[in-house]
C-alpha cells in the first residue's frame, strides 16, 4: 500500500522561453485524493503535472511531496509514478518483463518483483497476457500494462497525463471505471490531467479547472458543476454548456428579479456573495437540465413560448434547442411529447438552480 502523500504547490511560476505558462499557482492535494486537472489544450495542466514529476524545471515557487521539498529533486527521488498518453512499452519484452523492468534495474529482489507483478496483474486483469508482447495487445491492454508498470513501483503519488485519449469511446469508458476502482483499491494519491469533462466529473474527488495557466476553480465535481465561480467554468463544463442570458437586477417589496427585455426570473432566494449591484449588467446562467419544455413545464411555472430549432435524441433523453427572441436555449428533456422543428412550445426555467455572474468580470455574484 502506498503512503498517503500530500502534494503542495506554492507560488509556482514556469517560463518556457519568453512565454510564461504558469504564474503564481497554488495547489493542495490531500493524501489519498484523486485530483483531476481539467482544461482546454494549452491551459498549462500538463506543464503543471510535469513540474510535479520533475520533468520541467520551475522558474519560481516550490513543490512539496509528502511534506518534503522536492522542487529540485530528481524525478527518481520524488516517490512518484507517471503514466503518459503514449504507452511507451518496450516492444521486444513481453508484458511480464515490461512490468518488472524498472524493478529489475533497481536491484529489487526477485521474490519482491514477483509479488508486485502478480498484484498489478491481478488488479488489471493482465494474467492471461503476461507472456505476450505489446504488438499482440489491443490499445486498451497496452494502456493497462502502462498503468501496471506504475503500480509495481508502489509509489507515493501517481501522475496520469491524459492516459485514455488514444482510446476509442468504449475503451475509455471501461478504463475510466477501472481507474476509479484502482484508486479505491490502492488508496494512493493520484493527479490526473485531461481535457475530457466526463473523465473529470466521474474520476475526481476534487477537480481544478484551468485556463491560461491559472486555476479558475478547485472543488468537488458537484460543487464546480452546480456553482461555477465564473463564466469560463460555467460554459466549459456541461454538454450542452450552461445557457446564458444577459440582463440586469431589479428589486422591491422584498423581491429580487433578473430581467431581460423578454424574460423576468425571481432570484429573491439566490445566495449572493456580496451586496447585489443593480447598476451593473449581469448574466443569468442555467443548466439545460433546469430548462423545462412542453409537457415538462410544471403548474405554477412562469412559461414563455420558444420555437424549436433542433431536437437531438440521445437515447434516455433528448436535447431540445429553442430560439427565443434571438437567443438559443438548450434543454435536456426526458419528456416523450413529440416535438417538431419550428413548432412553438412553452418552456420554463428552474431558478432554484440558477447562477448569476457579473457581465464585465465574468465572476459569480
UniProtKB/TrEMBL annotation:
<dbReference type="InterPro" id="IPR008995">
    <property type="entry name" value="Mo/tungstate-bd_C_term_dom"/>
</dbReference>
<dbReference type="GO" id="GO:0140359">
    <property type="term" value="F:ABC-type transporter activity"/>
</dbReference>
<dbReference type="InterPro" id="IPR015855">
    <property type="entry name" value="ABC_transpr_MalK-like"/>
</dbReference>
<dbReference type="InterPro" id="IPR013611">
    <property type="entry name" value="Transp-assoc_OB_typ2"/>
</dbReference>
<dbReference type="GO" id="GO:0016887">
    <property type="term" value="F:ATP hydrolysis activity"/>
</dbReference>
<protein>
    <submittedName>
        <fullName>ABC transporter ATP-binding protein</fullName>
    </submittedName>
</protein>
<dbReference type="InterPro" id="IPR027417">
    <property type="entry name" value="P-loop_NTPase"/>
</dbReference>
<dbReference type="Pfam" id="PF00005">
    <property type="entry name" value="ABC_tran"/>
</dbReference>
<feature type="domain" description="ABC transporter">
    <location>
        <begin position="7"/>
        <end position="237"/>
    </location>
</feature>
<dbReference type="Pfam" id="PF08402">
    <property type="entry name" value="TOBE_2"/>
</dbReference>
<keyword id="KW-0997">Cell inner membrane</keyword>
<dbReference type="InterPro" id="IPR012340">
    <property type="entry name" value="NA-bd_OB-fold"/>
</dbReference>
<dbReference type="InterPro" id="IPR003439">
    <property type="entry name" value="ABC_transporter-like_ATP-bd"/>
</dbReference>
<dbReference type="GO" id="GO:0055052">
    <property type="term" value="C:ATP-binding cassette (ABC) transporter complex, substrate-binding subunit-containing"/>
</dbReference>
<keyword id="KW-0813">Transport</keyword>
<dbReference type="GO" id="GO:0008643">
    <property type="term" value="P:carbohydrate transport"/>
</dbReference>
<keyword id="KW-1003">Cell membrane</keyword>
<keyword id="KW-0547">Nucleotide-binding</keyword>
<keyword id="KW-0472">Membrane</keyword>
<dbReference type="InterPro" id="IPR003593">
    <property type="entry name" value="AAA+_ATPase"/>
</dbReference>
<dbReference type="GO" id="GO:0005524">
    <property type="term" value="F:ATP binding"/>
</dbReference>
<dbReference type="InterPro" id="IPR017871">
    <property type="entry name" value="ABC_transporter-like_CS"/>
</dbReference>
<keyword id="KW-0067">ATP-binding</keyword>
<dbReference type="InterPro" id="IPR047641">
    <property type="entry name" value="ABC_transpr_MalK/UgpC-like"/>
</dbReference>
